[in-house]
Amino acid sequence: MRFRVTRTSGYAIQTRQERPCREAEDEPGIDTQGYAVTKWYVEIGSLEELIAFIRRHGRIVLTPVEQGPDHIEIYDDYRE
Asked: Residues 6 or more apart from 56 whose CB is under 8 A from it?
């Protein structure tokens, strides 16, 4: 299953060009305001792979998305 992946620490400074984890592969995209951005994706094929991902990166927030790949946020910083 394909997931879009980001880091909580990337939201504050908008570092969309930085790879959120070593497994992530980039794909050019357009944000909601029409600007070109790099979006990062990971492929996770099983529950075991998801658990291994969590063990490598710590806490995550998994958000289902109606259109497009679901979202994994690596929760590496505080935010409300």
From this structure: 21
Where residue 48 falls (left for φ over 0; alpha for ψ -120 to 50; beta otherwise) is alpha
| Cα 63 from Cα 42, distance rounded (Å) | 14
36 within 8 A of 30, measured Cβ to Cβ:
yes
Locate 54 and state its tokens: 């969590």
Residue by residue, pLDDT tens for the chain (80 residues) are 999 999 998 765 554 578 899 999 999 888 888 888 888 999 999 999 999 999 999 999 999 999 889 999 999 988 77
Rounded to whole angstroms, how far apart are CA atoms 20 and 27? 13
Q: Taking the complete model, does pTM exceed 0.70, yes or no? A: yes
